[in-house]
Amino acid sequence: GAVVSQHPSRVICKSGTSVKIECRSLDFQATTMFWYRQFPKQSLMLMATSNEGSKATYEQGVEKDKFLINHASLTLSTLTVTSAHPEDSSFYICSASSGTGVSPLHFGNGTRLTVT
Amino acid sequence: RKEVEQDPGPFNVPEGATVAFNCTYSNSASQSFFWYRQDCRKEPKLLMSVYSSGNEDGRFTAQLNRASQYISLLIRDSKLSDSATYLCVVSRSGGYNKLIFGAGTRLAVHP
Over the stretch A67-83, which tens digit does the pLDDT of each residue have? Predict the structure, then answer.
C-alpha cells in the first residue's frame, strides 16, 4: 500500500539549534500534507496543513515563524523547528493525502525530538 | 473544552471480554468520524470509519449519534493484540482531510 516515509525517526539537539524533519510520499502524489505534534499521553495536535506550492495554513496557537513548513513538491514536505527549546521536545508526525479526501490518510512513522 | 473528548482509561480487561469506548465531539459541523488505533510510540492506524447507521468490522462495532455528538466503539472477544490506545477522530471538512484527534483511550487486555 501507499507509504509515507518520515526522517529522522529520532533526533536529539541542543537548545537554540534548528531541526529539519522530512516527510515523503513514496508512491503517490501528496497534494496535501498535515503536520501533527503529540506530547506524552496527549492527543495528536494538528499544527498545520500544507498544500504543494502554496503557504502552509497554521492552526491557532502555532507559531509559523518557529515551525517552518515547506511543501515544494508533490512528494516532499519539510518541517523545520527553529531555535528549538526543551518545551519543543515532542513526537512529530506527518500525514499525506492525495487531496481528494476520500482515501485514508497515510501517516509517517513519526519523529521523536528531544531538545536538551 | 477539547474538540474531541475521550475517557483516557486505562481499561484493563481479560481476554474474551467485551469493552466499549465512548467519545464526544463539540463541533456540530464535523463531517466524518473514525476510530484509529495507536500502539506505543508509533503512528496511528485507521481502524474503521463510523457511519450514522452504525457499522461493524469483525469484532469491532462503531456507532454515531449526530444529535448527541457521540461516537462509540465496541470490541467483542478481546484479544491480547487489541492492547493499544484507541483514538476517536473527527474531520471538520469531511473525508479524511484535517483530522482532529481525541487524546485516546488506553486498552490493556490480559491473559
Answer: 999 988 889 999 999 99
pLDDT band at A32 (very low <50, low <70, confident <90, very high): confident
CA A15 from chain center: how many Å? 20
What is the CA A46 to chain-centroid distance, rounded? Answer: 9
Write out pLDDT tens, residues B70-97: 999 999 999 999 999 999 999 877 665 7
Which residue among A32, A43, A100 places its CB closest to the CB of B104?
Answer: A43
Question: Which of B48, B57, B96, B106 should one mutate to test binding to chain A, selecting the residue with the greatest count of A CBs within 10 A?
Answer: B96
User: Would the pLDDT of A92 be above 80?
Assistant: yes
